[in-house]
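Worked problem 6 (solution included).
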Amino acid sequence: MTEPVPPFSSHSPTADWSEPRADGDPRLPGEDLKEVGSGSPPSPPPGQSRPWHLIARVAAAWALAFGGAIALQPVLPELPRAAALFLSATMVIGLSFAWVSAFSGLALHRTTYLALGAVGLVLVMVTARPLAGRTTAIERVAAVTASGVLWTTAQAGLPQADGVIVTRNEIYASVSDFLDECFPESPLRIFLLCLAQLLLASGIGLWIGDGIDEKGHLIPIALVATLADAWSVAQGATALIIRSAQIHFFLLRFPLLSGGSTALPFLIGLTDFLFFGIYFQAAIRFDLGLRKNVLLLGAGFLLTVGAALLFGAGLPVLPCISVLFVLGNLRELHLERKDVRTIVLFLAAIGLAFWVFSRLAHHFH
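Solution. The predicted structure is:
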């Protein structure tokens, strides 16, 4: 993975740190320009430009990996689906980590990261809408066609036996597959959507990570991420999304690394990489050890993907990466007593909100 360029230092290359300031001010040169911890990185030193070439390299790596996987699918050995999905997910994780790392290495102002996230959001909406519309149209046509079996059975006065339902489902699947082949998706659009989703995730994630004032605040952030993701899966919100056409807006796709297939399955959610950006930027901001934390977060992603494939069930990524991140940095993450009280009240409010949303969801369902 491309190593991130450390944030630019505010130290002037010509400053003599052994000499006090002439005005007697004990602050270091440049500290009077901004408050420490404001999350606004200084400009690069004179003669040193921001490493924009890293973005170009990562985008090229994405294009090469994505296009190469599609081109090689006919000649790749045919693997078990679980193994192929794990390899594809691993590729997405590595490339996405490199993407966030490259954007973090630019050491942009927080507002710029927020603006990049907003641009990414617009691009996701524009790029994903045609894909979602195509899925919706196919589902509607297949549903109308398959419903003809139920209508015919009802008109004939026959009971709605299990065999009728099975026939209806088979017709639905056949029509869906036929239309899917007749109106194939654009791999280029899917690739561009991946980059747009990562721009959204990295922009917002780095913006949040750069605005964390104290290391201890990472604990409540991790707790909220864990609770929110677990609640989403437990209450079925995630299941509703992944079974609808809206899945195109939330999950990244990548070619299946297996022969005899042309599939581009949905793999990992963009919010997972958004929180990776938060933890990644926090590791840099508070000097928690970048390599250690990238390994911890990578292990969290891979453990979740492996467990999901092993048990054949969708599992949330955020609990695993959040727990590993907090445990790996526990010695550095200290909380004051007043902070503990605030966190308890905040978590109680979050829990109440989750409970209310759950009740409303079941009521309207």
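Discussion: Confidence is low (pLDDT under 50) at residues 1-40.
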